[in-house]
């Protein structure tokens, strides 16, 4: 989204997590933790979505995605941190409802366990192994949903007056977009119905109609069936 917002020409190098491309030796050379995304610019690999976004804004001309007012910029970064803190809750839901079912469609548990052991990131090793062993309980998922609802409540307050998270469209909106898209894909977009959280509802309608969002979510799933493969087709995704 950041590249598109800045009108930067870019080339996709698709890394298929469902074929374990992230663990290939040639990929580990540019992403030692075996994670996506990575931005390669002028031969330099840049890691971490939040840092990649800041880099894109600083390195390229085009509309500024960080407010020039220091206070608004601080508010923006606070919000990006809030999104990242919510990462665990969304990862757990995604793991149980999307990633594990899709991996199991393609591979047996023996292969999955072998691949888990190859992951350099302890966080990902732990979450994948717990998921395979069926240890992420309904109670734990309910806690994750409660965390996500608290995040959405915070967002509803922050979006007053709106339409964006700070005083202009910024990296805060871009950082939040994939989390919200994923929640919609997991069928959790009822939490921002027009009745439930009207400002979040208006924000999602505004961000999802930006051309940069459309490019970002029409990413090819070269492995095949996308979300539909495991029966996830939320209304908002079909629209
Ligand atoms: N904090 C990192 C998170 C990177 C991350 O964990 N990416 C996940 C996909 S969203 C991944 O590459 N997973 C690889 C795996 O599960 O093996 C960022 O924002 O860039």
Please outline the helices and strands.
Blueprint: H1 2-5, H2 25-30, E1 38-41, E2 44-47, H3 49-59, H4 70-85, H5 87-106, H6 109-118, H7 122-132, H8 138-158, H9 171-185, H10 198-208, H11 211-217, H12 235-238
Helix pairs in contact: 4-9, 5-7, 5-8, 6-7
The chain binds glutathione.
Write up this protein.
With 239 residues, this protein is mainly alpha-helical. It has 12 helices and 2 strands, in the order ααββαααααααααα. It has helices at residues 2-5, 25-30, 49-59, 70-85, 87-106, 109-118, 122-132, 138-158, 171-185, 198-208, 211-217, 235-238; strands at residues 38-41, 44-47. Strands 1-2 form a two-stranded antiparallel sheet. A hairpin with a 2-residue loop joins strand 1 (38-41) and strand 2. Helix 5 packs across helix 8 (138-158). The chain is globular. It starts with a helix and ends with a helix. Mean pLDDT is 93; it is low at 234-239. Bound molecules: glutathione (GSH).
Please name the defining characteristics of this protein.
single chain, 12 helices, disordered C terminus, two-stranded antiparallel sheet, binds glutathione, mainly alpha, 239 residues, globular
Q: What is the structure about, briefly put?
A:
The protein has 239 residues and is mainly alpha-helical. It is built from twelve helices and two strands.
């Amino acid at each position: 989204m950041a590249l598109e917002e800045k009108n930067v020409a870019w080339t996709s190098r698709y890394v298929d997590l469902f074929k374990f491309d992230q663990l290939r030796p040639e990929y580990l050379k540019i992403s030692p933790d075996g994670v996506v995304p990575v931005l390669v610019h002028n031969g330099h690999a840049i890691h971490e979505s939040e840092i990649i976004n800041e880099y894109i804004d600083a390195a390229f001309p085009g509309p500024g995605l960080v407010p020039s007012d220091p206070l608004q910029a601080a508010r923006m970064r606070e919000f990006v941190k809030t999104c990242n803190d919510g990462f665990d809750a969304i990862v757990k839901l995604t793991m149980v409802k999307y990633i594990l079912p899709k991996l199991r469609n393609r591979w047996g548990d023996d292969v999955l366990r072998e691949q888990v052991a190859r992951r350099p990131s302890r966080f990902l090793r732990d979450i994948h192994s717990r998921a395979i062993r069926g240890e992420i309980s309904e109670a734990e998922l309910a806690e994750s949903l409660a965390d996500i609802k608290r995040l959405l409540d915070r967002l509803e307050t922050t979006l007053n007056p709106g339409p964006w998270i700070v005083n202009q469209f910024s990296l805060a909106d871009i950082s939040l977009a994939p989390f919200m898209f994923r929640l919609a894909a997991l069928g959790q977009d009822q939490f921002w119905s027009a009745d439930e959280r009207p400002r979040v509802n208006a924000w999602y309608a505004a961000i999802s109609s930006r051309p940069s969002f459309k490019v970002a979510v029409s990413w090819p799933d070269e492995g095949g069936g996308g979300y539909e493969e495991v029966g996830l087709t939320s209304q908002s995704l079909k629209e």
